[in-house]
Design goal:
single chain, 74 residues, mainly alpha, two-stranded antiparallel sheet, elongated
């Protein structure tokens, strides 16, 4: 019975993460600092465009690690 309880909690957490990710994708362009930070790599050429938000990825990773550390303790 405890396997189902753990599986259910995992599905709820995955669902919450997907809802947050979907919200960020829908409203991410309205958040002024997401994807436009110093250190984000953006290359625009005549027939080519490349964008890699490395600083944004690092900051999001730090925030998610902090949440995981705070709420992961038992």
């Amino acid at each position: 019975m405890s396997e189902f309880n753990t599986f259910g909690k995992t599905l709820v957490i995955i669902g919450i993460v997907l809802i947050i990710a979907g919200g960020l994708l829908m409203f991410g362009s309205k958040i002024p600092f997401i994807g436009k930070m110093p250190g984000d790599i953006s290359i625009q050429k005549k027939n080519f465009g490349f964008y890699f938000p490395i600083t944004t990825c690092i900051i999001i990773s730090i925030i998610l690690s902090l949440f995981s550390w705070l709420f992961g303790k038992k």
